Amino acid sequence: MKRLVVLGGGESGVGTALLGKAKRFDVFVSDKGPIKEKYKHVLIHNEIEFEDGKHSEEKILNADIVMKSPGIPDKVALIKQIRAQGIAVVSEIEFAAQYTNATLVGITGSNGKTTTATLTHHLLKQDIKVGLAGNIGDSFAKQILEQDYPNYVLEISSFQLDDIIDFKPHIAVLTNITPDHLDRYDYQFERYIASKFRIAENQTQDDYFIYDADDEVITNWLKANPVQSTLLPFSLTKTIENGAYLDNNNIKITIDNNQIIMPTANLALEGKHNIKNAMAASTVAHLLKIRKQTIRESLENFQGVEHRLEHVLKINKVQYINDSKATNVNATYYALESMDAPTVWIVGGVDKGNNYQELFQFVNEKVKAIICLGTDNEKLLESFGGMVDVIVETQFMSEAVKIAYKIAEAGENVLLSPACASFDLFENYEDRGRQFKDAVRNL
Fold it and tell me: Does 114 count as an annotated binding residue?
């Protein structure tokens, strides 16, 4: 019996443990922090051995294979030890994918991957049976065990791609690449780019690679590092023969001389970046033979993703918008770009090596006040102090919202778009977004 050690007792860890047990592995789950009660309950119920609050080396270093949670960096001593002993370290998607024959759609990118994955799933599920997993919802491993859909849309982070060996999606989507998580890649942008491109490294000519042709980082990398798969680029500015492009407010998608045309006028999601997300999702749907009518209707009734430019409430004619999912500068760039009125901007958190320069044009143009919400706001104050009349600091969401309420006038926006990670003051970006929404509702 082979021994599977799972590091991290969260959604992906527990899902992997369940699938591992079903596939007759001797399974052990180890988490350095506390495992949530709901997950402990599942492990106990399924008679899977686990520990939390520590890693016992003697129970880990005898593994045949180790599945590590994407949150654990490679530089951790334990991981180095495991690798030094020649034990395979894999991510959940690598472990789980070998147990399904489903058609896999893998979606990665610095921004837009959750919206694109959710939208793609929304377009496909009307016509075919399809699961949504990866960084989102129930774990991929658990779904393979319980549902085994014939198709899956997977939202995949660079951390998960770092630990693949044979994983190969039939359709890969790369939404964009901007500097993010550089703290995990020794501040080397090239390493981060390479990690994103691993989504296509096992693809063959029978597979498809959908990507943003307007993104120079992607196009330059492709020139130097060609992939095997069939390329289907999308663009807002170029005319694309095979792939998707924008022509007079119509999205035109061509695959093997078969063209479909989608008007953008009625897209449920606003903003240029969402036209790109719609192009990527529609290209996948077109490849998987979803009816044009279904694609069109689905693009028009899609509700969007929580914490991503989510309109919360209008109070005294001021619109409150929750974009807590903006954990890097590029995501906030899209948010500020789409503001159509003077905006009170709530920003800050754990800085991952941000360069705020690309936001300057929008801050000068659209932002009337800045509220810094973080434990260390020095870089924000330095970057934006001279651009707005009002810049204040706080460490409490409720206070940030109250200050915004005092400053914003009728017809204006209050935008939470932090451009930073949330771990200094919040559990995660969801917690941060929920606290914002609660504070707004309590005004």
Answer: yes
